[in-house]
Design brief:
The protein contains 9 helices and 8 strands. It has helices at 27-34, 51-54, 74-86, 96-100, 102-106, 121-129, 157-160, 182-186, 195-198, and strands spanning 4-9, 42-47, 62-68, 91-94, 111-114, 136-138, 170-171, 191-192. The strands form 2 sheets. Strands 2-1-3-4-5-6 form a 6-stranded parallel β-sheet, sandwiched between helices. A two-stranded antiparallel ribbon has the order 7-8. Helix 6 (121-129) links the parallel strand 5 and strand 6. The chain is globular.
Length: 199
């Protein structure tokens, strides 16, 4: 039986962010899923933004849990991480909030990913398989993001996300607006995905 990797988008608990009328797929988790070898691992994505999955966010069959964290869900993410770690299941935290506040995130995880995960996720999985999970993985150089997204990992995908499938074509921004996290997390140089990859 293959070990299960569970990837989680936490629910928003702040009342200033009410439920949206439709759901947006967790693209960052789909990228990680596409980089995870299916011959070695079973995969499960739990989207806490979906009402049907919010109450079943703890899966004790998980061997490793990855949680993506943006600031509005950081408290929720840390609570989920705590509950998994109480079960003895290692937790990896990543995402924009972790990249901007790594010291804080380290207090709530067995390992963190700082920066874009494409260049470090395969090494992290190898270390996990060998029982050598490091406390931190840092993407030193902006990775290429030509990953072909495999949405088949999400059961009933079109029922869960009936209106929108996300296609990311660029990363980075030359502006450094005070209210925006893009330049801080993706850099101030715009990187383009190839047209062939977008198609």
């Amino acid at each position: 039986m293959k070990p299960q990797i569970t990837l989680i988008q936490p629910p928003v608990t702040d009342s200033t962010y009410p439920d949206m009328p439709f759901s947006i797929e967790p693209l960052s988790l789909l990228v990680l899923a596409s980089l995870t070898p299916r011959d070695r691992y079973d995969l499960r994505i739990i989207d806490g933004a979906l009402k049907g999955e919010k109450n079943a966010i703890i899966d004790p069959d998980s061997a490793l849990v990855g949680i993506t964290v943006v600031t509005p869900v950081s408290d929720s993410a840390y609570d989920i991480a705590r509950r998994y770690r109480q079960l003895g299941i290692p937790v990896v935290l990543g995402g924009a909030h972790v990249t901007l506040a790594p010291k804080e995130a380290k207090e709530h995880a067995d390992s963190i990913v700082v920066g874009e995960a494409e260049s470090v996720w395969p090494a992290l999985l190898n270390d996990f398989a060998n029982g050598e999970l490091k406390p931190e993985y840092r993407a030193e150089e902006p990775p290429a993001f030509e990953v072909e997204i495999d949405r088949s990992v999400i059961t009933n995908y079109r029922r869960k996300y009936p209106f929108i499938s996300i296609i990311q074509t660029t990363r980075g921004c030359p502006n450094d607006c005070e209210f925006c996290v893009v330049a801080s997390t993706y850099g101030r140089r715009i990187r383009h995905r190839s047209i062939e990859s977008v198609i």
